[in-house]
Amino acid sequence: MKHALKTQDAADLIPDGATLLVGGFMGVGSPHRLIDAIVAKGARNLTIVANDTAMPGRGIGKLVSAGCVSKIIASHIGLNPETQQKMISGEIDVELVPQGTLVERIRAAGVGLGGILTPTGIGTLVEDGKQKITVDGKEYLLETPIHGDFALLAAYRADYVGNLEYSLTAHNFNPIMALAGKTVIAEPHSIVPVGMISPDSVKTPGILVDHLLERAA
Amino acid sequence: MDDKEIIARRVAQEIRPDTLVNLGIGLPSLVANHLPKEVHVFFQAENGVIGLGARPPEGMEDPDLTDAGGAFVTAVPGAASIDSAMSFGLIRGGHLDMTVLGGLQVDERGYLANWMIPGKMVPGMGGAMDLVAGAKQVIVAMVHTAKGRPKILKECTLPLTARRRVSLIVTEMAVIEPTEDGLVLRETGPGVSVDDILTATEASLIVHGDVPAMRL
């Protein structure tokens, strides 16, 4: 059984310089309370791995605005002009990765694979410096795993075992990142007694989750 | 009819019943408005839903249900919510029948550039590279020229989205099919002559006999 952590206590687990896998797509399915607490404690030099950086004032965009971030690995930063400005000024190092490749690199880390072979990016800027491997006459890029010190997830419901259920398009990267963080912190909308979530509905088994955040006030 | 409507209507004619289709943000998303009622398809939003529905009435949005542009949407009966690995697995794995995407440039090889303008616009490729590399059919829906300058070129000058020949280019002036032999002019747009199209296109076009007009 897991005791739910206070938001501030969860944020205090995260040291400066850590690599964070953060769930969410344009802020949908991001752990917003945890992000607010990381901003409030004045974290620095974080590496953020996420699909995107949302927009200024929302989700991961708040970490960018507050100067918490020195590196970003993402598929899209187009809706956050602040991320682009900080990339151009050199304050933040940005690595752009195709979305399907990004999620598989995270999954590879989480499921013990040494990388993945993908046709995505062949013949584009993405292939620069990467090994190409031909399988059955078709060319693929070797893409390497991305591990996180922490995975910060948002979920719809949790139980006190840590089992997680997700809602609609708020799944996105969350169930995959749950596999790839050394420490996994989940922020559910609500926490229900053990047994309330049907085993068939559990998308992230509780054994992957180290800490649950207390439910929203 | 404005340019975007011409393009959206014409692209809608390419959609076959009972398929899975992914529409890009902006112009491509308008295609859904022109699908005949009897044609049932599932639209995929790559952020995690198969069976994307219309915009919800104001005040009835679900904050956990958006399209890939972040706009609130609904889901149709029979919809499925999926995570990003499943979503892009469907795209790369050959399970997505068609994607419709906007374009900055397309060239004689049928290669598409639509994700960055070096030094000006570096938003990231998002899902575009996976979509172009993986979808069974790729349709480029774009206006024919940008500020009077051709967008269909001998060779793309902008960074490519994939090294893959797209299936069809639909503009307000023309329907063009990239083939092994080059770009074949299939149809002309409303009030546009073959000469008009050749003038507005840098790439060489293959013209076979009388080119039919779009039937909108």
TrEMBL record, chain A:
The keyword Cell wall biogenesis/degradation appears for this protein: no
Xref: InterPro entries: 3-oxoacid_CoA-transf_A, CoA_trans_fam_I, CoA_transf_BS, NagB/RpiA_transferase-like
Annotated Gene3D superfamilies: Glutaconate Coenzyme A-transferase
GO molecular function: CoA-transferase activity
One family name in Pfam for this protein: CoA_trans
UniProt entry keywords in alphabetical sequence: Transferase
Protein's UniProt keywords contain Cell membrane: no
Entry similarity comment: Belongs to the 3-oxoacid CoA-transferase subunit A family.
Protein name listed in UniProt: Acetate CoA-transferase
Organism (species): Roseibium aggregatum (strain ATCC 25650 / DSM 13394 / JCM 20685 / NBRC 16684 / NCIMB 2208 / IAM 12614 / B1)
UniProtKB/TrEMBL annotation, chain B:
InterPro entries referenced in this protein's UniProt entry, alphabetically: 3-oxoacid_CoA-transf_B, CoA_trans_fam_I, NagB/RpiA_transferase-like
Pfam families, A to Z: CoA_trans
Swiss-Prot/TrEMBL keywords: Transferase
GO MF term set: CoA-transferase activity
UniProt cross-references to SMART domains, sorted A to Z: CoA_trans
NCBIfam families: pcaJ_scoB_fam
The family this protein is said to belong to: Belongs to the 3-oxoacid CoA-transferase subunit B family.
Protein name according to UniProt: 3-oxoacid CoA-transferase, subunit B
